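agent> Task received from the user: take the single chain below, predict its 3D structure, and emit structure tokens. No templates, no multimer pairing.
agent> Plan: (1) validate residues, (2) run structure prediction, (3) serialize to tokens, (4) report one or two observations.
agent> Step 1 OK, no nonstandard residues flagged.
tool_call: predict_structure(input=
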Amino acid sequence: MSNIHFVLNGKGGIGKSFISSLLTQYLLSKKQSVVAIDTDPNNTTLYNIKALKAKFLQLIDDNGKLDVRVFDKIIEHIFEKKSDNYVIDSGATTFIPLIDYLKENEIVEYLKTNKANVYMHVPVVGGQAQSETISGLVQLVNIFECDFIVWINEYHGPISNNGLEFEDGEQYKSIKERIKAIIYLSALSKDTFGKDLLELTSKNLTFDEAMSDKDFSLMSKQRLKIYRDKAFKQLEIIL
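)
tool_result: status=success, residues=239
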């Protein structure tokens, strides 16, 4: 049985590729086979992390439309059971056509009928994009029947709705029964953890690679280990 992990939301710059990378690294740490797939035509962040051996799929043709036949190949690959897990990182520009494809072809239902586990990992962020990312989450939950995992990414600030925590907000309460889990990427000091994570991502490294990289100081490695372990511990409970 394969596990299909879609990482998606319609807003760009909210950490989808970082979450895809974290998820892939976690699954690999558990000695599971993973096929990571980058579908973002504008920012191939996941594909650029060479250690993850991600595949890049050009889903958008010259007319800006989704090339359905390309995505068909992913589904066929899944049914050939070549991997335990598939992590599919979607870009902002592929969000709408990908959603349309999944709906029109009843992909989620088809996968579940054929004994695949389908997860949708949806980032929600603080700051100016908060409302848009929460709306994107609600939209997805109202369309698809699968396991939803919300990633609270506080890199751009804490999530607050009229002084309420995310889980106390009315939008979340309206979909609460459909959420399998919430993973928190809590805000940490930008002068320490922030700089270390920025160096990690700008160099397109995995956490394991950074741990053995002489350019990272002893304390930088310690902070990266803390960050990774906190995320992995949360994933351990649900996957």
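agent> Step 4: summary for the user.
The longest helix spans residues 218-238.
agent> Done.
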